[in-house]
Amino acid sequence: MKDLIALKDIQLNYELFSKFLTEDLEISLDEITRARLNQNHSYLLKHVQSDRKIYGINTGFGKNVSSTVSGDLAGLQKNLALYLDCAQGEWLPERTSRLIFLVRIKQASFSGSAIRSESLSYLIDLFNAGISPIVPTLGSLGASGDLVTMAPMARLLFDEEVSCWHGGAVVSLANALKETKIKIPGADGRDCLALMNGLAAAATLAMTEILKINHLLNISLNSMGLCKLALGANQESESEILNSEPVRNFSGQKLIADSLRRLYVGAGSGRKAHLQDAYALRCIPQFMGPVIETSRLSSQWILQELSSMSDNPYIAIDDVINGGNFYGGYLAQASDLMATNMAKVAELLDRQTFHLVGGQYNLPENLIQQNPEASFHGLKGVHQLSNSLLMKIQPQATSYSLATRSSEMHNQDVVSNCMNGWLRVMQLRSDFETLLSCHLVLTAQAKDLAQVSVSALSELVASVRENVPFINKDQSLREPLKKLKDSLYQIKSEGPFSL
To answer: Would you say residue 498 lies in a domain?
Structure first.
């Protein structure tokens, strides 16, 4: 049975997103929220009746704001949704689209958007019936929010022919409504603009991505710890003295060092540590410290965006305030930070693979014992795959918040590019998953060859071994590596990146 949550009680936080990625819920429009919506809409009607010029109600849109519209105001809202419905690219997955729908419903319930309560009630009915808008990936500028990509959501208010998600398939709204008693309310007031003129799509995608990335970063840190143990690397570099005040004053560095020391408890190989290791083994706290601090900053920005109003204008009791809260600057910068973080961690993981296969740490080259009657190459190919992936990942970390263009007749002359930035992160994450899988295979093999006890990491090693066997001869690892990559989100990953 699905949880039923009053709209006023929905908190757009990590717990909700983590749960909703695998479970569903139902929403009720509580009377407190309904009363607030009705009151806010009454402000809008009062302003309209005073013959005041209100953007998006009796004016054109964007650069055409100077034109005055009179008469069919509902038709103006429909025209807005129709002319903007030109987005291209693949559709975001149904689960992500449902999350975007949930976020936009919640954000539209904030004071200031002046959406009609009957429109929001209808959208809630759609959500509860398992009907969600399609969200195409290409077309958002991240300036007037996600206008083009959110147009199909606005069309749900008035157009039975619009495509939507229902039961895992894309169908027409008319088809999805056949087995329900839900009636389309039509568009009026500023309902369509209120649904499109915001950052719900980009912010939701950002949150789903950062939850997955933090899971991967925890696994990465655990795999780095396993790497050091398998190589018999010197653990002094993670000592509390070196990584805490007054010697060092960085909270992220301390968190990483503390986490690694916990992984080392009860572990040991009896192998003699080097006096000083290469930087990829010695500087993990200094390398990963900025990663965790900027990841947390990005998470904070995304949470704040989710719980904020990004519509324009703001409809108040005695005023209509025009501004630019739809500009996704924080989301764009966060996408750059997370792309850089993944690229940097990928660099560190890849550098460590050289030490794992190089034969310098009393382990055989390519992590395979040689047979006098045959010559084996072991994990040389996996190492090369990691190298190739790094070369693909690093260029993807270039700044998307800087790669912007003026748009819409120079009305939107500066834009954030946040949606494209997070779509880039999504692709980069997929490549990062494969590179991380390479590192896991190499570290598990090194651990078994070195016969290291790793009590805190035994579950991680077991998860690798469920998909990739110990390698004692040359064999194809294409399918085992893919299985390991596909299982990454089932691996338990406690660590400092957990939110």
So the answer is: no
Which residue intervals of 265-283 are DSSP H helices?
279-282
pLDDT digits (tens, 9 = 90+) for 300-341: 999 999 999 898 899 888 888 999 989 999 999 999 999 999
The CATH number of whichever domain residue 60 belongs to comes to: 1.10.275.10
Q: Are residues 43 and 81 both part of a single domain? A: yes
Same domain, 175 and 244: no
Contacts (Cβ under 8 Å, ≥6 apart) of 458 = none
CATH code of residue 209: 1.20.200.10
pTM summary value: 0.94
DSSP one-letter code for 212: H
Nearest alpha carbon to residue 436 among 279, 213, 186: 213
Sign of the Cα torsion 278, 282, 286, 287 reads positive
- What span, in angstroms and rounded, lies between the C-alpha atoms of 265 and 273? 16
One domain for residues 194 and 178:
yes
44-52's contacts with Cβ under 8 Å and 24+ in sequence apart are 44/114, 44/189, 44/190, 44/315, 45/189, 47/315, 47/320, 48/73, 52/320
Whole-number Å distance between alpha carbons of 75 and 197: 18
Is position 499 within any domain? Answer: no
In 101-179 the beta strands, taken as DSSP E runs, fall at 131-133, 136-138, 163-166, 169-172
Residue labelled with tokens 């087995």: 179
Q: Would you say residue 272 has pLDDT above 70?
A: no
Last residue of a domain, one of 198, 231, 258: 198
HSE at residue 299, side-chain half, CA atoms within 13 A, is 19
Q: Quick one: 173 and 225 in the same domain?
A: no
- Tokens 């800087």 sit at which residue? 402
In this prediction, residues 399-420 reach a mean pLDDT of 92
Q: Say whether both 149 and 224 belong to one domain.
A: no
State which residues form the domain around 417: 205-490
- Compute the distance between CA of residue 164 and CA of residue 218 in angstroms, rounded to an integer: 36
Number of other residues whose CB lies within 10 A of the CB of residue 240: 11
Q: Are residues 184 and 281 in the same domain?
A: no
Region 390-417: mean pLDDT is 93
Inside any domain, residue 497: no
Q: In total, how many domains does the chain have? A: 2
- Residue after which a domain boundary falls, among 166, 198, 230: 198
Do 223 and 131 share a structural domain? Answer: no
Task: Provide the b/e sequence for 91-129 (b: ≥16 CB within 10 Å).
Answer: bbebbbbbbbbbbbbbbbbbebbbbbbbbbbbbbbbbbb
The 10s digit of each residue's pLDDT in 116-157 is 999 999 999 999 999 999 999 999 999 888 999 999 999 999
Task: Output phi, psi for 473, to 5 deg.
Answer: -160, 165
Rounded Cα distance between 348 and 351, Å, is 5
Per the omega criterion (within 30 degrees of 0), is the bond before 246 cis?
yes
Q: pLDDT of 369-386, one tens digit each?
A: 877 666 788 999 999 999
